[in-house]
Amino acid sequence: MTALRSGDLLHVSQAASVQFHKPIVFRLIRVLDWPTFDGWVWLDGYQLDTRGDAVARRSVFVQPAGLRKLASAPAPAAGQEAGRGQPAPFPAHDPRGPQRTVRSRVVSGSRGRPG
Q: What is the pLDDT of residues 80-103, one digit of tens each?
């Protein structure tokens, strides 16, 4: 494998480390310079979901020889949109007007205590 660089998109599976029995897609931020065993590295980056969106920042301990570089983020599944840059839909007008929230209040002290 060629040298790892910031921005690389990686497929991390059991070939890189046994903990990845369920493979993940990982966007590399940096290779950490933490001391490790020969042939192993710590990587800092983001785990991506099936749409290519970051879902968790992670530091992973892997063997670079088991990593596979990907050309691009996974394409959205059929019928799904990536949704990037789209504002959240505005809720429809409720003809009942604004709804009030009922809150209860806890009173402390001697009132209400059996005695």
A: 554 444 444 444 445 555 545 445
